[in-house]
Amino acid sequence: MGHPDLLQGFIHFLPLLLVVVDEEDHETVNRRIVADEAILFITRVQERLVHEPERYRNFLDIFHFYHQGELDIKEVQEQMFLVLTGHPDLLQEVIHFLPLHVQAVAQVQWDAMARDQQRP
Questions:
Q1: DSSP assignment string, 49-101
Q2: Considering the entire predicted model, what is its pTM?
Q3: How do the domains of the chain map onto residue ranges?
Q4: Rounded Cα–Cα distance for residues 36 and 73 (Å)
Q5: Euclidean distance between CA atoms 60 and 33, whole angstroms
Q6: Less Cβ around it within 10 Å: N or C end of the chain?
């Protein structure tokens, strides 16, 4: 993958419901499954943006800056929308990696932003 440090930042977005905290054995397995899903998603974004390296770097930077505390979740939502504009399937997929309490809000905001972009 080439960016294991950024994957660590991305994992902070993963929904907590996917992690079983009661049984240690299941927690490790579930964390691995979630991490694998994150890696697959990042790979899809990388493949999609292969001809736009600056845009892909911006995608990775969002997670880096969030992990460093330089972006809040609202800024992440706004920047993620801009970076993935034109790729609605990736936007839809990234919503599932946002914290649960902002997923619905992000969907509504991104839908509104998409409508605004389509206006002449």
A1: TTT-HHHHHHHHHHHHHHHTTSS-HHHHHHHHHHHHTT-HHHHHHHHTTS-HH
A2: 0.67
A3: 4-118
A4: 23
A5: 21
A6: C
| CB-based contact 73:98 (threshold 8 Å) | yes
pLDDT in tens, 35-93: 778 888 889 999 999 999 999 999 989 888 887 889 888 888 889 989 998 898 898 88
Nearest to 31 by CA among 44, 14, 13, 7: 14
Enter the tokens of residue 80: 């993620």
Read off the amino acid at residue 60.
L
CB neighbour list of residue 117: distance below 8 Å, 6 or more residues apart:
85
Report d(CA 117, CA 104) in Å as an integer.
20
How many other β-carbons are positioned within 10 Å of the β-carbon of residue 32? 10
Helix 53-67 and helix 4-11: axis angle, to 10°?
Answer: 60
- 3-class DSSP state of 23: coil
- Measured CA to CA, the distance from residue 116 to residue 110 in angstroms comes to 10
